[in-house]
Fold:
Amino acid sequence: MLQGNKFIMLTYNNRLDVSFKNTMDIHAFYQYLSGPNGPVDFDYIIRSPDILSHLNERKYVTFVVDGQHVVHANSYKRRDELSGVIEERPFTAEEAAEFDSQPYQTHAEWAATFWGSESNAIHAKVHHKKDTGTIRFVTRGGPPRGIVRALRRVFCEVEIEAFYDNPQRFISGYY
Structure:
């Protein structure tokens, strides 16, 4: 969203209210939901392609290759859990071919298509009581409708009520 001369990323506050009929579903549900990125990890629910997960989304990056400065249109960037860069390099020929063979230019574009949001869950908090739970998190670019559809398919015995609100646009709703 453009506001004046400044681009503002639209964020969505999300809440999932869950009700469990079977106590066996409780542990399985929360385990399925979580991953190395936190208590809610979309990449564990719907896996994104590795080539896009490690795509350096700055369009042009300059590397020194054999003493020469070379500009690459796409490059590989691997980060640790704290978002520190572990490795950054030009795509190999195989990685470039893999990237060119799929239709998405960025991870955010892929995520918006499959997850419904352009980002993984941010600031996730899980509150659980006996047979109910509330999961709150923030996403960028939209509510994660694709993730909720996947959860409902896998856990058809779990009642999931999904709500979002976008404070910048004054919109909210259930899905």
User: Anything to note?
Assistant: Helices lie at 23-33, 42-45, 50-53, 93-101, 107-114, 145-154. The radius of gyration is 19 Å.
